[in-house]
Amino acid sequence: MSSKVLETIGLTKYFYEPTKFKVLDNITMSVDHGEFVSIVGKSGCGKSTLLYLLSTMDTDYEGQVLIHEELVTGQSDIDLARIRNEKIGFVFQFHYLLSEYTVLKNVMLPGLKLQQYSEAEIEHRAMDHLKTLGMQDQALKMPNQLSGGQKQRVAIARALINDPLIIMGDEPTGNLDKKNSDLVFDIFKELTQEHNQTLLVVTHDADFAGRTNRIITMEDGKIIS
Amino acid sequence: MNYRLILNIAVHLLRARLKQTVVAAVGVTFGIAMFITLLGFMNGLNDLLDGLMLNRTPHVRLYNEIKPAENQPVNLSDDYKNATNFITSIKPKDRGKAIYNSKTIIRILKEDKRVVDVAPKVTTPVFFNSGTIEISGIINGISVAAEEELFKFSDYVTEGNIADLEQNNSIIIGSGLAKKMMLAKGDIIKVTTPKGNLASLKIVGISQIGIAEIDDVMSTTSLSTAQKFLGEPTNYITDIQLKLHDINLAPQLAKEFGTKFGIDAIDYQTANSQFETGSNVRSIISYSVGIVLLIVAGFGIYNILNMMIYEKMDSIAILKATGFSGNDVKWIFITLSLIIGLAGGFLGLIFGFAFSSIIDTIPFETSSLPTIKTYPINYNPMYYVIGITFALFTTAVAGLLPALKASKIDPVEIIRGK
After folding, report:
1. Min distance A97 CA to chain B CA atoms (Å)
2. Each residue of B201-223: pLDDT tens digit?
3. Does the pLDDT value for residue A205 go beyond 80?
4. What topology does CATH give the domain A33-60+76-223?
5. Does B15 touch chain A (CB under 8 A)?
6. ipTM of this model?
7. Distances (CA, A) of B344 to B39, B109, B302
8. Do residues A37 and A213 make contact, with C-beta atoms less than 8 angstroms apart?
9. Beta-carbon neighbour count of residue B56 at 10 Å?
10. Residue B417: which residues within 8 A CB-CB, separation 6 or more?
11. What angle do CA B358, B360, B366 make, to 5 degrees?
């Protein structure tokens, strides 16, 4: 199996509103298996935009994106959804839990969509992930009964449910206080060290970035280091 | 696609917005209930009025019409064959009212597979004598069993029993006639025929068709009594009435029998053409009102789903981010809409049936319709099938637009917007 999990070749993207503006300029990069990579840069440098291109949710760009050496550029909506479901886990700044479901069901949802395991097994796996994150006692609560840090941990459990190739984070600690930020970072660190999980995190928290394996710094739509 | 999961998500979204869901479903329920009630009631009335006509008019009637001979002598002459003949002052020819060879015709018709039954009839104008006053009227001599089979004559006999007509010299008179002449059941009525024969008949019943003009003049007696007081033999028949298996064949069969037996024939449709129009217009009105109600309910669903999509933008975005395709999201919202449609629709059917049953018990008594005691309702299952089908159709269409919108939501826009 190749060690290259994620690769981009000459990614260029424009924003058209209010005027035509080059957000990303010919970005070529790759992420290897087991790496914990952070993307940093000033606000507006295009780091989040890059992440959403890599996540396959934004398809309006020039260049190529390869996930696991498979070209995803130009695939259909349904195929891209399947790739996201199977290979990518997301943690956003905001937790985005579904308020209609319990914590456990929220974690299970991407697994139920993938249908790789039976419902009982998915539930068991979800419980395991929650346990790892110290959330097993909250499993049957509704999301609005949890604190911000707890919600973010549930979101991480949800990102893990399908054993993704890579977990992508968009300012995952942006809304959290120092204590919870550290907690989330420790979880990420543990995932890379113990489970060899690949992580790609966009952040403007220099302290957070400083502790990752590799830092990609961006400025004005270009990678500068 | 994982339908169970999609259904599960739809149900959870609905439960989170229970109040709005109920309001939307009630809209559908109301629409369907009114649709069913209206159709049932309208068609009940239609059936009643159709029955009124059908019970008086045979599907096909064979008779001799008094009219000019179709082939005037000059047309038969070879000398004037190629000429255009103008004939003035033609008088109608009386071929006699009796149908020639009636027994044979009846036998042949009874063997015809398309014909349910045949009822021979003798119709004659008469004078009813009351003291010195003479009142003109009509006597129908009927074959009691056949007439009952074809026209449910007993429905219109308010007093007495039609079986009593089998007795010699008995008569059932119209209610208007009975009132005018102060006659009751058991009295004797004196009748003068056009040929001057006098007969005394015993009144065994009073009939009421519901149309005053007819009740004022019409009386009914048995075939044999009529033939007897007219002084005619037992093969004297003036009308042959047919009931068909398929009423739509009436115009065609009327033509066929008319030519075959060389007599005049008129079909139900021709005899009641305006009446059919009335029925159709009433049906169209009730269908359109029902459909309008459902469309209004559809707009309600559309609004509520649209609002729900705005509220659930975040959920839709995360569903998409975690691997649900636009198509999945579309189906979640269509399913949501169909659940509202199904639940509302089924309740609507139940309420529609309940309303119909209530109307069915409301007293509706009118002198012109003696056998009707309550408002008529038609419980045709077809209306219920149409109702639920249309409920599902409307809700699916109403849900489709918001669903397409939801499927096109760009998750990046929502997630980055925070």
Report:
1. 7
2. 999 999 887 778 888 888 999 98
3. yes
4. Rossmann fold (3.40.50)
5. yes
6. 0.85
7. 18, 52, 14
8. yes
9. 17
10. none
11. 130
Question: pLDDT (tens digit, 9 = 90+) per residue, A154-171?
Answer: 888 898 888 888 898 888
User: Is the entire prediction scored with pTM above 0.90?
Assistant: no
Closest residue on chain A to B10 (Cα): A100
User: Going by C-beta distance under 8 Å and a sequence separation of 6 or more, which residues neighbour residue B249?
Assistant: B114
What's the CA gap between B226 and B231, in Å, rounded? Answer: 8
CB contact under 8 A, A84 and B328: no
Burial of B90 (0-12, 13-18, 19+ CB in 10 A): exposed
Helices (H), B55-143: 73-76, 102-111
Backbone angles phi, psi at A170, to 5 degrees: -110, 100
Residue B171: closest CA among B137, B202, B195: B202
Domain residue limits, chain B = 3-54+275-417, 60-67+95-268
The domain locations on chain A are 33-60+76-223
User: What sections of chain A are H helices per DSSP?
Assistant: 47-54, 77-87, 103-114, 119-132, 148-160, 178-195, 206-210
Alpha-carbon distance A138 to nearest alpha carbon in chain B (angstroms): 20
- Return residues 49-108 of A near B (CB < 8 Å): 52, 55, 57-58, 77-78, 80-82, 84-86, 90, 92-94, 96-101
Looking at the partner chain, which of B315, B324, B416 has a beta carbon nearest the beta carbon of A113?
B324
Confidence of residue A1 (pLDDT cuts 50, 70, 90): very low
Burial B342-375 (b: 16+ CB within 10 A, else e): bbbbbbbbebbbebbeebbeeeeeeeebbebeeb
Question: According to the model, what pLDDT value does residue B408 have?
Answer: 84
Distance in angstroms (rounded) separating the CA atoms of residues B400 and B253: 50
Q: Which two tokens stand for residue A214?
A: 């590799």
B83 touches chain A (CB under 8 A): no
**Whole-angstrom Cα Rg for chain B:** 33
CA gap A77, A222 in Å, rounded = 28
Which residues pair with residue B93 across a beta bridge?
B67
Say if B11 is an interface residue toward chain A (CB within 8 Å): no
Tokens 């509202």, located at residue:
B340
Question: For residue B73, what are the contacts with CB-CB under 8 A and spacing of at least 6?
Answer: none
B415–A77: do the CB atoms touch at under 8 Å? Answer: no
- Here the tokens at position A119 are 């419902």
- Crossing angle of the two packed helices B3-16 and B18-54, in degrees rounded to 10: 100
What is residue B384's three-state secondary structure? helix
Max Cα distance, chain A (Å): 52
Chain B residue numbers with beta carbons less than 8 Å from the beta carbon of A52 are 412, 415-416
Q: Which residues lie below 8 Å from residue B64, measured CB to CB, with a gap of 6+?
A: B95, B96, B97, B98, B99, B238, B263, B264
B336–A contact, CB cutoff 8 A: no
Tally of CB atoms within 10 A around B247: 14
Nearest to B140 by CA among B196, B187, B83, B207: B207
Distance CA B204, CA B172 (A): 6
Nearest chain A residue to B320, by CA: A81
Q: Pairing mode, if any, of strands B198-207 and B170-174? A: parallel
DSSP A137-165: GGTTS-GGGS-HHHHHHHHHHHHHTT--S
